[in-house]
Amino acid sequence: MRTVEWYNGQVRMIDQKKIPWELVVVDLPDYQSVAAAITDMTVRGAPAIGASAAFGMALAAKQSSATTIANLIADLRQAASVLKAARPTAVNLAWGVDKLLGIAISGEFQNPDDLRAALLNEAQRIADEDVAINQRMGAYGAALIQDGDTVLHHCNTGALATVDYGTALGVIRAAHEQNKHFHVLLDETRPRLQGSRLSAWELEQLGVSYDILPDTAAGFYMQKGEIKLVLVGADRVAANGDFANKIGTYQIAVLAKENGIPFYTVAPTSTVDLALASGDLIPIEERDKSEVLAPYGNPIVPMHFKARNPAFDVTPNRYLAGIVTENGIARPPFSESLRLAVAGETL
Ligand code: MRU
User: Fold this and answer.
1) Is 199 touching ligand 1 by the criterion CB < 6 Å?
2) Mind telling me the catalytic residues?
3) How many angstroms separate the CA atoms of 168 and 137, rounded?
4) pTM over 0.85
5) Where is 10: in which H helix or E strand?
6) Which domains does the chain have, with CATH numbers?
7) Ligand 1 centroid to 106 CA: how many Å?
């Protein structure tokens, strides 16, 4: 099944907190529970959050008892503010919500039920398009992987981080489907362990050769000359190519440059925020310290110990060899190539 989908008038998603131990789906009956699922990371990964939020807006329209367009729009605005507040960094969330709100306020619909149907159609279209976009990024990005390579990957950017197929892990999947023979090193990605729990689970099923690494081991293998390429995802790419991604990405980028290893991010244009000139303007989520002290409820130190838990960091554009988008690989200067990619031009 897909990571998130519309099922029987509700939003159905895989509970990513339970993987790899159990494959559990949850059915969410209202937009409030979709927002809560984004906050507690039942669903996570920028494109998956974007599609979930779009379905959440369709759900809000269904929940609303409004009999006029004006009242329905008021209810949708309320839902939009709740959904957008669920997590701050991935711009796909606001992108998905605003796409649906744009339809609501377009003035195109006079009948609330017609608008409800149009919103569900759009959410479904966003979900379907996400899969197609990921496959296109996979086709462009697979050319970066050569037989015999070892590729370093951070966090989870696979089917679970999207509606299906994946971004950076989608590139890895595409190269595997082309019968290339290569090995993947998966950063475990503390504190929530998306690399060891989610990416390893996905590569197990795909039959891709991999090893999980402690995050602290990436530099060791780079220095030994084992790593030929680094592929990561992105939660928000600023107009100049600076980008936010899972905490730890920045230090990998610096190590890759030091060791002369090409470093790419793989991100759909829905992750590009041309309204932000540079990465220092990206809001960075800080999550609860309990995730550091007791991952998944298992204390590794006493709970009164102090900790900090930034969920993302920003990598400056100078570390990037390129940004793989659905319209081709954007190269420096990114302010120009990203503008073209977002406008839908083939690069
Ligand atoms: O906190 P998460 O798990 O939502 O963070 C996910 C990432 O940082 C991914 O690398 C990013 O969303 C791109 S995945 C398609």
Assistant:
1) no
2) 235
3) 8
4) yes
5) strand 10-14
6) 4-134 (1.20.120.420), 137-342 (3.40.50.10470)
7) 31
